[in-house]
Amino acid sequence: MGVWKKLLVCELVIGLWIASVPNSIMAQGKFQGLPMVTTYSPEEYKAGIQNWDIIQDNTGLIYVANNLGLLSFDGASWERYEINNTKVRSLYQASDGKIFVGSQGGFGYLHSDETGALVYVSLSDSLSQEQRNFDETWKVFQIEDKIYFCTFQGIFSYDQKRVEVISSSNRLDISFKVNNQLYTFEYDKGLARIENNQIALVKNGEFFKDKRISNILNFDRERLLITTFEHGAFLYDGDIEPFQFNGDFWEDNFLINYSMRLRNGNIALATQNAGLFIINTQGELILHLNKSSGLLDLTVNYVFEDKFQGLWVAMNYGIARIDLNSPFTFLDDRMGIAGAGYTALKKGNKIYLGTNIGLYISENGQMRFVEGSEGQVYTVQELNNAILIGHQNGTFVLKNDRVIQVHDEPGTWIFKSLPDHPNLILQGNYSGLSILEVQNDEFRFRNKLEGFDESSRLIEVDEDFIWVAHGYKGVFKVEVSKDLTRVTSSKLYNSQNGFPRDVLINVFKIANRLVFSADTGFFEYNEFTDSFDPADTYRDVLGDDVIMVDMEGDALGNVYFIEREKLGVLKPTSSNEFELHYSTFNKIKSAWNDDLANVMVLDNQNILFGGKQGFIHYSPGDDLPRGITPSVYFTKISNRGERDTVLYRGHDTDSELMSKLKGMSFPYDQNSFEFEFVSPHLESDQELTYQYKLNKIQEDWSEWGYENRREFTNLREGDYQLMVRAKNIFDEVSDPVVFSFAVRPPFYRSFVAYVFYFLGTVILFFLAFRLVDKKYKQKTIKLEEEQGIALEKKEKEIKSITQRTEEEIIKLKNEKLQSEVQHKNQELASSAMHLIQKNQLLTNIKGTLKNIAKDEKGKQLNSQLSRLIKTIDKDLEGGSEWEQFSDNFDQVHGKFIMRLKEKYPNLTPQEIKFSAYIRMNLNTKEIANLLGISVRGVEIGRYRVRKKLGLERKDNLSDFLLRF
């Protein structure tokens, strides 16, 4: 019950919407929706609520006169300029680029300063105090070389040098420019014209003296259309006749604030209390927009048509842009349709529209909800002269605009006629297939086809088979029994039968030919192999990577399609091929319904796409070529570094300033830049994308992106060229805008620095060469010294080795000599011992002989003994033995005896022997035996030797003789 309550509430709200929609939204029986309306609230543009005038400069920027100043809009962002803190009422851009401004109590112009920023120059300040006694400057016009500022107290003309006033004795009202002539309204007089700086009434101008005129415009070649604030509109050619509004849409209490002739010939009427009306020259309503249809306010002060034929609306509260020139209109909640659009059918002058909320009928510009259709309407089809409705709650038939339920099985997706069975209709449901039967224009449920329970949303009937596409399994080829009661065979085709995958497989019938699509293009059934092969019919124009959601053809051979990435139409050519047209449809790419998406061809001139909110209507006849190519401009150029400088602020793109800036060079400490750019393609709204390329940094264009700002930091020195281009919503690419600049190298990388580096390098090389040469020489000397030292060391080592060798040799020799000396000493000692022993023996023998001689009395024997004793004495003296001993002794003891004789010549031979024996370290007794003297005699001899050698008592004789 809660769901039904919600549906009833929804229906009530819908009814209120319908009541609020004027009966003449769609005039002349032409089926259309409402145009896309883009609104800008005061919170968005951040200024006053009231707006009074709108102009567009040659770059495409929009300027709006606002209560808090002048607004500019580049398609991406708003900017506000204060004009002496007053309200801005009127605007006009002259051919020289100046923007002339009429404000509260003043007027003047804006021009670009040295950085391209807009600067205001007041012209009213030059007036006398008496001339400045005016309140508002409501209009600004240019006629030939003069600018006219129109106030209620007078009209001021400016010829680029001085300001003159055209005064009137009566108070003036709004002024107008028509056919290069200036008209005004004088209170209590009527309509007048400026001639030779004089104000004169036109023919029958007094007719309007009690009718305030809101605007004058050309109606045809002879007549003007004059609209008034309170008294409607009139045609004027000297004579005056009321302009007739054709239809009941116009009410006498509607107040016309402004009127203008659109480029397509229609007339826009901006009202004070009823929004905006678009009428044709016959006075028939084309379009009426008010708050319920998208405007922020009913009070429209001014309208302006930009160069893209978008209609700008200046309101008492906010600003709006209306896509009047678009082939797309929208059937949504503004027209009383709720929910996402699923299906549509045109029958006669009625359009049946099914959404997820229910069924709606559009007839003669009015929209109404069909009671009892609450819920999701999946399909509305005309079969057997009846309108069938596939609904979440089952199957319905529409009679007298009321729904009658035929079958209550939930979820009826689609209906299809059956060949050879004109009174039977196949329907696809959540859980399979079933048959409806028609008898006497009455529909009834006949039977369910047993043996097939798959969800059947997409069905196409061939001569022999029923093809059912399942979004997650593949496509089924179904054969049914002749009595249409059961499925005799059902075969599933998927990735095992030629398709790339099992999912996203659809089936369509275009020009009576089955077309199967998958996520890699199109396929056709090959009955010989019972599988699917790639098809080239659409592949050649759409490619291989398309995922087709829906396709439907019209009677002219055009095939409208919805694909995962784009919407479009394939148009047949004379060569039986197709041309792809999709860029126009980019406008609605974000608005189409991606759930149960559907394209519906009502007829050749009325195509519907299911939208997220309602439906999107496409009128091929209104899809005209776009004559204006997109453009892109720099809006701000900043130089960053040690200091931040704004070089350019975005106005006067063709001025000398940009010419001067292009090619400008910057010091290295200012090598960072920030660029802001915009393409004022207002129809694209926020869907503009940009590419850039900076040489030396990137060889190829960047990826397309929404960012309209780019910063480059720490650029190296060199010549740079930044190229920026834009792509609008229709995939049209602008010519690139180019900004060339140069970054000078730092001083240490400048030409002078490089010359200095070169010279310095040469000098350094020279000095280095000298240094290296000096070092080489020093090194050579050092090497020589080191070599000398090394050689000397080697020589020393050699000498040392030689010396050591010699010493070794000497040592060896000494050792040999020592050995020889020791041997000699041993020989001397042996010889001495021998002598001692011999002398002792001889002494003993001599003593014995003396004793014998004493005892022997015989003379002969004594004589012999005496001779023998003498012989022994002679032998004891040892003259010859001493000589041999002394020679050996000198050889062993370094010529000791010779040196001793030379130094002490007063020594007696006996004392020399005595000294030699002492040196040999013989004891007293041994010396006594060698010398043949007594021990006492040895002592006396030692004493005498000490005396002759000059020894003191403390000196040791043995030590002295050993050291000598």
Automatic annotation (TrEMBL):
Pfam family name, one: Y_Y_Y
Ranges for domain Two component regulator three Y: 685-740
Keyword Transmembrane: yes
Top-level division of the source organism's lineage: Bacteria
Organism (species): Algoriphagus namhaensis
Keywords in alphabetical order: Coiled coil, Membrane, Transmembrane, Transmembrane helix
Protein name in UniProt: Triple tyrosine motif-containing protein
Membrane-spanning residues: 751-772
Keyword Coiled coil: yes
Coiled coil: 791-822
